[in-house]
């Protein structure tokens, strides 16, 4: 009987040790997965910030804007490279084109719709209140169309929210800190879209 009881005690200790080891392994795996997710989010965010920043710098420069056809389409060109850069981050040639077009047309549509709302309907002062609304709406439509280009309903909503927050908060930061630098909120908006896209990709919520 004593031998039997000792065997039960030994089995209990071994079982407890194995459970503890399994728990530690799961925690380590979770930490590794979280680290990889963070790296992917930062990588996509960087692609977005740089891409949207380069797009803005190129298509607002005097050398480019002197061409008459650029100005009416400037909101499109200001974001098209940003969308393409996120396609590069996904390592998908087809998505380079689709995300470039989606971001460009999304921002263009949002810019003119929100411009009409601000100037004609609400009759707001252009800066800062009007431009804040324009950036918020343009960022929302830009993100939503990118989600639509990815053929994912969740991405339409999530990227729309990311665009709204990124461009609106980016505008507030630029207004309060950098005296309204347009480049700053373009880059923050791009970083926001990129970071969320990276998270969605890492969680296998998009292809």
Count of discrete alpha- or pi-helical segments spanning 4 or more residues: 7
Q: Count the strands?
A: 0
Please outline the major beta sheet. Answer: none
Cα Rg: 24 Å
The backbone outline, from C-alpha atoms, is elongated
**Helix percent band:** over 70%
Uncertain spans: none
pLDDT averaged over residues: 85
| Share of β-strand residues | under 5%
Oligomer: single chain
The end-to-end span amounts to: 61 Å
The helix-strand sequence is HHHHHHH
Helix/strand/pairing category: mainly alpha
Give a written overview of the molecule:
By secondary structure, the chain is mainly alpha-helical. Helices cover 86% and strands 0% of the residues.
Summarize the structure.
86% of the residues lie in helices and 0% in strands. It has 207 residues and is an all-alpha fold. The longest helix is centred in the N-terminal third of the chain and has 58 residues, at 2-59.
Question: How are the elements arranged and paired?
Answer:
Elements: H1 2-59, H2 62-65, H3 74-89, H4 93-121, H5 126-149, H6 153-177, H7 182-202
Helix pairs in contact: 1-3, 1-7, 3-4, 3-7, 4-5, 5-6, 6-7
